[in-house]
Fold this protein.
Amino acid sequence: MFSSYDELNHGLVSARREFDAILLASHESSSMNTLKSYAAAGALALATLAPGAASAAGVEILNEGFGNVAGLTGWTLVNNSSPAGSSWFQGNADVFGSQSGAADSYAAASFLGAANGQGVVDNWLITPVLTLTGLTNFSFYTAHEAVPGFSDFLEVRWAPGSSGGTTAFGTLLATFGGVGSPYPTDWTAWSSNLNLQGEGRFAFRYVGYADSLNYVGLDTVRVVTAVPEPSLYAMLALGLGALTVMRRRQANRAAN
């Protein structure tokens, strides 16, 4: 099995070159009907080279609506605030309702991430370890409670691999809030297509001075990663089988 599209395409190109070589060597054969039959079969291996044949089907590997933040499976909550207060918690429907599902079905973070709302908030919500196979769509919804004089700030980050603390999240994907970039007051979708291979994690970091923050919500976190169509491998296997038959026929003819 191929582990990536690059390996798959390399295998297809190699198959095509070999197929062309066999056709050239077989050109002087007196049995053109047989040759045409082999050519038709061998063409199955090359059909995947047609435009659009290497398209991928998306497989959803994460869809979290935060119906129970305290019971999240595989997720990690890390509060690096100083002094530490509350971690991410169940959404409060009295502040605002969820993007989808029950009114409180979202994850929330607030200025109380620092004890008594004093100090620096540095509150992390980290996805389970995900296995990604190429083109990956990562999406979620976020919103905040707008209160004059306060400015929420959220970072969205990525870390390859399955180990390491919050320092492993060196790749910044997006930010919400901050100077010159108002945080959305209504649920707003964010989505990005990323080319990622192997294991990794996404993280949401609510950060800032507690006396400048207020309250944010996060909902419907979804990850869809690409895998080659099963038919791609089936066609390749059939075509390569045909090439094997053609090799044997050529060897037998040479021996005679």
